[in-house]
């Protein structure tokens, strides 16, 4: 009986540890970190107002959203994330490769911050 109680306690502890809430980053945090400016006539943001550095307004606030975006065939090669893949954006073509480096750097700062 003691073994059963001990086993139940261990399972309960492991379950509590594994059920942590997913960390999410706010849109405002991403907008500020990337200096995103709203598009005039489309649902996009432009990094520093650059039309060759546009991203979809549907920002990726957590790992689940990043994973879902990465599985969409239409977004292949357009999802840019931090190193931990917990926050990201969907680039809108044409997207300047130099913007990708800046995006990664800024998203990694969010993760570190």
Describe what this molecule looks like in 3D.
With 113 residues, the chain is of the alpha+beta class. The protein has one domain. It has 4 helices and 5 strands. Strands 1-2-3-5-4 form a 5-stranded antiparallel beta sheet. The chain is globular and about 35 Å long. The N terminus is likely disordered.
Write the layout of secondary structure elements.
Layout: H1 2-18, H2 27-34, E1 36-38, E2 44-47, E3 54-56, H3 63-71, E4 79-81, E5 88-92, H4 97-112
Antiparallel strand pairs: 1-2, 2-3, 3-5, 4-5
Quick structural overview:
The chain is α+β, with helices and mostly antiparallel strands and about 110 residues long. The chain has four helices and five strands.
What are the salient characteristics of this protein?
44% helix, 5 strands, alpha+beta, disordered N terminus, 4 helices, 113 residues
Helical content (DSSP H or I, runs of 4+): 40-55%
Integer tally of domains: 1
Largest sheet: 5 strands, antiparallel
Strand residue content = 15-25%
Summarize model confidence as the mean pLDDT: 85
Rounded radius of gyration (Å): 19 Å
Provide the spatial order of strands within the biggest beta sheet.
Answer: 1-2-3-5-4
CA-to-CA gap between the ends? 48 Å
